[in-house]
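[recover] target loaded
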């Protein structure tokens, strides 16, 4: 008996709903539309291809209200601004620090117990060679490692200039002698224009750690001239670099050059030549060994 009563109520409810609301599909609008018993549209359903579900909109209110829609959360771009500000602050702090270190280098020259004309010669050479070379490059001063590499290059260059100027004056050479004229480059000059065979090519990282040795597919060689060096890579490609801002490096016993195509270092006994990735003679480089030893 209870089952009969329940079934009767269910049929009655369905009958009532069918009389108060009618659902029709509109092929023109591509949606389901709902109408009340008077024929007025009370709402409609459209399919959201993005969410893959039907959304119902009521026509009884002025604003559409889909049953599944939520306004997107606003984008938070504050962290982007904070990152930019952090990089700029780091850049400003590092450039100020580098400038202070360079000022200390100038002060160290002026405090030397040498003649004033020697001090002036050292300062002018320092400004016109390594300092000028650094200023002509685009260096990421927000990176502390880049700052340290620049300062190391400048310190080594200044030390070489000081030694050369004081040595040339102590040997009664003329004041106009260039800071780039050294007796130790005679072997290099004697081999200008000659084809120097390369026995091995090795890659070194920024920490001067040997990473790998290249496989030479064809005969590799180097040709040195006064203002340019020509070299054949391991893959057979022929390249060249201009040689500018020549400075003697006492620690490595050779000559370093800056270049828009990459810095170069030539060992004074022509044991090897280093070709750097950056414009200065510091950091990652490919070392071309001219002697069979294969060691630096």
């Amino acid at each position: 008996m209870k089952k009969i009563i329940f079934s009767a109520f269910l049929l009655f409810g369905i009958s009532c709903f069918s009389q108060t609301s009618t659902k029709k599909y509109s092929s023109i609008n591509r949606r389901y539309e709902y109408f009340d018993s008077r024929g007025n549209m009370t709402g409609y359903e459209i399919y959201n291809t993005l969410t893959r579900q039907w959304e119902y909109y009521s026509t009884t209110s002025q604003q559409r209200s889909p049953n599944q829609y939520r306004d997107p959360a606003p984008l938070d771009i504050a962290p982007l601004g904070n990152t930019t500000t952090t990089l700029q602050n780091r850049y400003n702090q590092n450039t100020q620090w580098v400038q202070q270190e360079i000022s200390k280098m100038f002060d160290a020259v002026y405090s030397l117990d040498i003649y004033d004309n020697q001090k002036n010669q050292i300062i002018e050479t320092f400004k016109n060679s390594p300092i000028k070379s650094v200023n002509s490059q685009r260096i990421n001063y927000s990176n502390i490692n880049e700052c340290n590499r620049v300062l190391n290059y400048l310190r080594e260059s200044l030390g070489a200039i000081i030694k050369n100027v004081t040595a040339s004056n102590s040997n009664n050479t003329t004041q106009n002698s260039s800071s780039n004229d050294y007796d130790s480059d005679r072997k290099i000059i004697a081999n200008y224009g000659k084809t120097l065979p390369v026995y091995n090519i090795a890659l070194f990282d920024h920490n001067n750690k040997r990473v790998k040795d290249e496989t030479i597919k064809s005969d590799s060689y180097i040709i040195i001239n006064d203002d340019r060096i020509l070299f054949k890579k391991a893959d057979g490609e022929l390249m060249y670099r201009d040689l500018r801002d020549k400075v003697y490096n006492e620690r490595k016993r050779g000559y370093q050059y800056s270049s828009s195509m990459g810095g170069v270092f030539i060992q004074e006994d022509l044991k090897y030549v280093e070709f750097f990735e950056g414009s200065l003679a510091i950091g990652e480089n490919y070392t071309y060994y001219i002697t069979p030893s294969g060691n630096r």
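[recover] notes: Confidence is low (pLDDT under 50) at residues 1-18, 172-182.
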